[in-house]
Write a structure and sequence with these properties.
The complex is a heterodimer of chains A (125) and B (349).
Chain A: H1 3-30, E1 36-41, E2 44-50, E3 55-60, E4 66-72, E5 75-81, H2 87-90, E6 100-103, E7 108-113, E8 122-124
Chain B: H1 2-31, E1 32-39, E2 42-49, H2 52-69, H3 77-84, E3 86-90, H4 91-106, H5 116-121, H6 134-141, E4 150-155, E5 158-162, H7 172-189, E6 195-199, E7 202-206, E8 215-220, E9 230-236, E10 240-245, E11 250-253, E12 256-259, E13 262-263, E14 268-269, E15 274-281, H8 284-297, H9 299-307, E16 312-318, E17 323-326, E18 333-335, E19 344-347
Parallel strand pairs in B: 17-19
Antiparallel strand pairs in B: 1-2, 2-6, 3-5, 4-5, 6-7, 7-10, 8-9, 9-18, 10-15, 11-12, 13-14, 15-16, 16-17
Helix pairs in contact in B: 2-7, 4-8, 7-8
Classes of the chains: A alpha+beta (125), B alpha+beta (349).
């Protein structure tokens, strides 16, 4: 074996591991590890907020109606809303991935993404 | 030279490892398509393993059905019938009507497609709730009786009906069940082997998961103080799962709770000590209609009805927390940890 062969092997290995390393870092940066609370209105995203930061935000609609999203202690809820049925306000707090709270009158959906997985596929109600 | 080859091979192998893993993830994503949209006054979530095209087609089918049958859509077939007291239901509308009337008859009117005017009076259709006077309820009840709907003509693809004065019909209590069944059949005909259809809590699944495992369908807890909102989990393949309960839509007045499932004989919220009824069976429409009807009937009559049927199972949650489950699904159901100490009673034939 020539000296150049060794250099080539060494170089190839370094390149290979560098690529591997870069891919890993890229993957890590692009997968969100904190759970997010995503709010959509009729399919349009209105905002996303980390589930691990307490906050409160009001979403107002043109006709004067509104929903208040509250994140507290790692769970999300609608704490207040103008809708007559109040179904979204009565809904339990959510924190599992894909769990949702829906306010039908305002077409507002609160959904959890990238958090703790529950092994449930759908909820009959 | 050999080492050179080895080095190159090693490099290729490493690169392929990375690519391979990513490709797998992508394949998984494209194989399972899902969609979420608002229709029939609820949010619909459908996921299938198959062509994305089928999903847009499915959404169009749902929207068309809503246009044809919604009581709040002025030009729908149902609205026209309610307005003119005479009219025609076509295609799917005729099928839903027939299926609904069958359940009305089979449950002695515990489900009644003509309860709509009373439901409106309570404000359950608009959210502007109020407790009506007994007098008003009794007056409205005079026009509530599915037996008085007259069928003047009927062919395979249409039904002509005539309503007495003041009567109005509403197919809402069975439309979502029919719709999930229709989508199930549509996906199946198009070669889909795995699908989960969730129409605002009316769940119907086609086959099991991609892995072959059954779907895990949670039954919502009817109790407002529930921590996670889940009563238990049912493992299901190729089944419709429909729950009805007072918790879905209710209001409080003077410390009393009033919910949207009305007893057609009293015109008031059905109150036989049941918090929720879940019907599990092959036919979406039947599950939907029965979940309402058996809530109205109460535990004893519901169990009696089940004993004389062979096409569904059920889970009945009583207001006191007891859970009754029929033997056909007893082994597929587990209470959530929160309710682990609840009394679970298995009903047998």
């Amino acid at each position: 074996m020539k000296k150049n062969d060794l250099i080539l092997i060494g170089a190839l290995l370094i390149i290979a591991f560098t690529i591997l390393g870069i891919t890993r870092v890229w993957q890590k940066n692009n997968t969100d590890e904190t759970a997010m609370v995503i709010v959509t209105v009729d399919g349009q995203e209105m905002g996303r907020f980390p589930l691990n930061e307490d906050m409160e935000q009001r979403f107002d609609f043109q006709d004067g109606s509104y929903n208040v999203l509250r994140i507290y202690d790692g769970k999300a809820e609608i704490s207040e809303a103008s809708c007559p049925d109040q179904i979204c306000v009565k809904h339990h707090k959510i924190h599992y991935t894909k769990e949702t709270i829906v306010c039908l009158p305002n077409k507002l959906v609160v959904e959890i993404a990238g958090g703790e997985e529950s092994d449930i596929d759908a909820v009959a109600n | 030279m050999n080492f050179k080859k080895m080095g190159a091979g090693l490099l290729c192998a490493l690169l392929l490892c990375g690519c391979g893993a990513e490709k797998k993830v992508q394949e998984k994503l494209t194989d399972t398509s899902s969609t979420t949209f608002f229709a029939m006054d609820t949010v619909m979530e459908i996921q299938i393993t198959g062509d994305q095209e089928l999903l847009s087609e499915a959404e169009q089918k749902v929207v068309a059905l809503e246009k044809q049958l919604s009581v709040t859509e002025e030009n729908s077939e149902v609205s026209q019938i309610n307005k003119n007291k005479i009219g025609r239901l076509t295609g799917a509308g005729a099928e839903i009507f027939k299926g609904g009337m069958d359940i009305c008859a089979a449950t002695d009117g515990a489900l009644d497609l003509t309860i709509y005017p009373v439901l409106k009076e309570w404000g359950f259709t608009t959210g502007e709730y109020k407790v009506p006077d007994d007098e008003d309820i009794n007056q409205l009840l005079e026009a509530v009786d599915y037996n008085k709907v007259e069928i003047s003509d009927m062919e395979n693809d249409y039904i002509d009906i005539v309503l007495p004065e003041d009567m109005e019909i509403d197919l809402g209590s069975i439309t979502k069940g029919y719709t999930s069944q229709m989508l199930h059949d549509y996906f199946e005909e198009n070669g889909v082997e795995s699908a989960l259809i969730n129409l605002g809590g009316n769940v119907q699944c086609l086959g099991g998961k991609l892995t072959g495992d059954p779907w895990k369908i949670a039954i919502k807890s009817p109790f407002p103080d529930s921590k996670d909102g889940i009563l238990g989990v049912l493992q299901a393949k190729d089944l419709a799962i429909v729950t009805s309960g007072g918790y879905e839509r209710y209001f409080e007045e003077d410390g009393k709770v009033y919910w949207h499932i009305l007893d057609p004989t009293t015109g008031k919220p059905a109150d036989k000590g049941i918090a929720s009824v879940t019907i599990v069976g092959k036919d979406g429409l039947r599950c939907d209609g029965l979940s309402t009807a058996l809530f109205v009937k109460g535990l004893d009559e519901a169990v009696e009805y089940w004993k004389n049927s062979d096409d569904f199972d059920m889970i009945i949650v009583m207001s006191n927390g007891d859970v009754h489950i029929t033997e056909g699904i007893a082994e597929d159901f587990a209470l959530a940890q929160e309710y682990a100490t609840s009394k679970l009673i298995v009903e047998t034939r």
